[in-house]
Amino acid sequence: MSSKLKTWLELYVLLIKTSVRSRMQYRFNFILGSVLAALIQISEFLMIAIVLYKFGAIQGWSIYEIGYLFSVITLSKTLYRTFADEVHHLEKYLVDGELDQILTRPVPVLLAIMPRNFRIMIGEVLQGGFILCWSMNGLWRSGQIDWTSIVFTLFIIVTGAVILFSIGLATATIGFWTTRIEELQTFTEDAARTAGQYPLTIYPKWMSSMLLIVIPVGFVNYIPALYIIRGELGAWVLVAVAAMATICLGVSMRFWRFGITKYQSTGS
């Protein structure tokens, strides 16, 4: 690890600690927000569970398999938004001119933004973790998975977080030209992630292709799940997922560096 990268990581950790101390000044708001977030997530899955209970399965995917898809993408999103939530809120920096102040600091802009308002999303972690354990327990009892699936699942949660971060960063970068990006984020992040909670086979071919190529949320959970919990395709799927995460991160970072050169100050 280069000394420059080590310095940036140390600075990132320091900024996170500062952000956490600041947020813990309002502990009630922190606890209430975590509880409400967990309730929202649980209600989303309960709606899916009710449908599955009534009809039995979706395109041959059982309730445990759907729970697996749901929990993996939820935990990947939670990991991404825990460590880089402000990327999702870049619009406020562009509109309020806060980005101008950050540009004057001797640190990379992305590094300065990411740790701001850092929060551990306890509600989402507990909810996603509970559904994941419940789903994998059901799959284990049915003989669909073994202990290696646990290791692979932890791996794809991390790669999934990288993919979701990359999608979020690329969307945020468009704001350097448009300033307003909230509606676009609703499509590229929120709607795409919601669609990714289900097997892609339930969608028309054009839509499933879009969720694999244009907005690749399918590589967060669906594609690796075909191998991990269904035994389809082959172990090469995990390599493909890691490669997709690496490509997405590299492309989004290059796009970010290009986009920031096009930024025009609110005073210009």
Automatic annotation (TrEMBL):
Q: Coiled-coil intervals in this record? A: none
- Record keywords: Thylakoid included? no
Q: What is this protein called?
A: ABC transporter permease
- Report whether Cell inner membrane shows up as a keyword of the record: no
Instruction: Cite the PANTHER family for this sequence.
Output: INTEGRAL MEMBRANE TRANSPORT PROTEIN (PTHR36833:SF1), SLR0610 PROTEIN-RELATED (PTHR36833)
Which residues are listed as membrane-spanning? 30-55, 120-140, 152-177, 210-229, 235-256
Q: Which UniProt keywords apply?
A: Membrane, Transmembrane, Transmembrane helix
